[in-house]
Amino acid sequence: MANEPQNQQEQQQESPQPQQPVAAPQPVAAPAEERPFEEELLRIYRCATVVKGGRRFSFGALVVAGNRAGRVGWGYGKAKEVPQAVDKGTKAARRAAVRVQLSGSTIPHQVDGRFGSSRVRLVPASEGTGVIAGASVRGVLELAGVRDCLTKAYGSTNPKNLVKATLDALTRLRNPDAVERLRGVPVTPRRSAGGQRRAKADTARAKKGGPAA
User: Fold this and answer.
1) From CA 129, how far away is CA 139, in angstroms rounded?
2) Cβ partners under 8 Å of residue 103, min gap 6
3) In this predicted model, what pLDDT tens digit does every residue of 1-25 receive, in sequence order?
4) Where do the domains of the chain lie?
5) C-alpha 35: how far from its chain's center?
């Protein structure tokens, strides 16, 4: 009888304790560098070669690939069938992807790009403007992650040249922090023409001793 309380204590110690419910892990957003690439087919080209028995056709595909977070590239694939051509162009676009500098949903500053006889001008736009561009330029900008931008194309409207000119413009972009590190001097934001005139007027009034506007 004396051992019964001791046995009961041992049974209580050996009995498993109820486990606390484990909270489900929260999904974590993937960093910009790890976002999956998306592809967009801009144009299909049909090429014909004249041979002894007639004409032999092949197809070319102009493809743009990007992760909508600052990386974009273009590729051109050629094959006897359209799917194989698109697959080749997609792989080439992924290999040729480059990193571009963005400023929120737009670009840091106005920039011009050129390839051959095509020239593309990119202008920053306020949030909500959207991408105002043609099909070739729009595909590159959207897959690069630009959501607000004004564009203008000059010269040749060849889709290949426009894509290359747009990428040339994007690779020329620099943000103020990168310029400060390269030059070692602080970079001040550029004023508009009206702002420069007001600044000169305020400086003149300050020299004369009058109140600034």
Assistant:
1) 16
2) 124, 175
3) 445 555 555 555 555 555 555 555 5
4) 35-171
5) 11
